[in-house]
Design brief:
alpha+beta; Arc Repressor Mutant, subunit A; 3-stranded antiparallel β-sheet; 11 helices; 8 strands; about 10% strand
């Protein structure tokens, strides 16, 4: 709606609408609105005090594109949430039942916000920031998953003197450590796409897969060597390079899909969808995620009290069978991908402010 530019800058309460620059500020900070919702707000403010019919919204904001009334309802609901308004006791947007909406707040001329000239992006800084926040997101996923598996393991009968709290802590710490290392490889691999001249999906996938593969291989090698040193033997099929590459590549694809979203929730959805699908596929193909590795370790060392029977029983199994493998693999991939990609979306937004 190019005609909105004629509104100039208008102030209402703590908000400033800069129609020419298509920005809404609250107390000097930008308010996140997509293009159509900004146009809808500009239309309301431009006709302040007057009724704006539903049909006019559809004609001028959606430009005749066929949409349902629910689209307009969702638009007004979002505007109210961003403005801190209440439909039952409105300060800004008043509903005229069955007809449309009216902007009722006092509007005054405003002055455009000064912004320093934008600097060219610095790839190294962006790489470090995105990789760092992605790693933090993976650590959060490990904390959540570790506590869930820890309490599931603590629900088993324990040997005398072995406190349930110890089981929770051991499993939780091991899961957090694995998730943090894995997330570092995946996140910094995905973030390396900032060095490409064109940020194509293949660079996101390749970076995530390569980072996941390297970390997975190193962690598996160190883990096997440590177990051999301490106990004289170790299982060879714990999570490693193949699982890391598959999961990292899938999360990289999710990050590519999420590159244009403006909300953390949508970023988490993309990361969760691709990560969950990869986790389930890894389990179906015989690979092992964290729960599968914990189960394998428990069976490899007689007398181990680290068991996940509470998980098996959820799926009616007497051991860590196919249903448990797929379900836990999907859960771990979903949680891991959602937290990494969501954190990277948040970091990208902060970096560009």
């Amino acid at each position: 709606m190019a005609e909105n530019a004629g509104l100039g800058c208008l102030r209402f309460e703590g908000f400033l609408l800069d129609a020419g620059d298509r920005r809404l500020h609250r107390d000097g900070r930008p308010v996140d609105l997509n293009s159509r919702y900004f146009d809808a707000l500009a239309l309301l403010i431009g006709e302040r005090g007057k009724l704006v019919s539903k049909q006019r919204f559809l004609d001028e904001v959606w430009s005749g594109v066929p949409v349902t009334d629910e689209a307009l309802t969702q638009c007004i609901r979002t505007l109210r949430r961003q403005l801190g308004d209440d439909a039952a006791s409105p300060r800004f947007i008043e509903t005229v039942p069955k007809h449309g909406y009216r902007f009722i707040a006092k509007v005054e001329p405003g002055v455009a916000q000064w912004r320093p000239p934008s600097l060219p992006p610095r790839p190294w800084s962006e790489w470090l920031r995105l990789g760092g926040v992605g790693t933090a997101g993976g650590a959060l996923a490990g904390t959540i998953g570790g506590l869930i598996y820890g309490f599931a393991g603590a629900a088993q009968p324990l040997a005398p003197g072995m406190a349930a709290l110890s089981v929770v802590l051991v499993i939780a710490l091991a899961t957090v450590a694995m998730a943090t290392l894995g997330a570092a490889g995946v996140a910094f691999g995905i973030a390396a796409s900032v060095f490409a001249s064109r940020r194509l999906w293949i660079w996101h996938m390749a970076g995530g897969a390569l980072g996941g593969m390297i970390v997975g291989a190193v962690v598996k090698l160190i883990g096997i060597d440590a177990l051999n040193l301490l106990f004289g033997h170790s299982p060879g099929d714990i999570t490693g390079a193949a699982e890391g590459a598959a999961l990292g590549g899938a999360i990289g694809l999710g990050a590519w899909f999420a590159r244009r979203v403006t909300t953390v929730e949508r970023g988490m959805a993309w990361g969760g969808i691709t990560g969950g699908a990869a986790g389930a596929l890894i389990a179906l193909l015989g690979g092992r995620m964290m729960a599968g590795s914990l189960d394998l370790l428990a069976h490899s060392f007689p007398g181990s009290r680290v068991q996940l029977g509470a998980v098996w029983r959820l799926f009616g199994e007497t051991e860590f069978g196919p249903a448990s493998r797929v379900a836990t693999g999907c859960f771990e991939g979903l949680l891991f991908g959602a937290c990494i990609v969501g954190a990277m979306v948040l970091g990208r937004r902060a970096f560009r402010r």
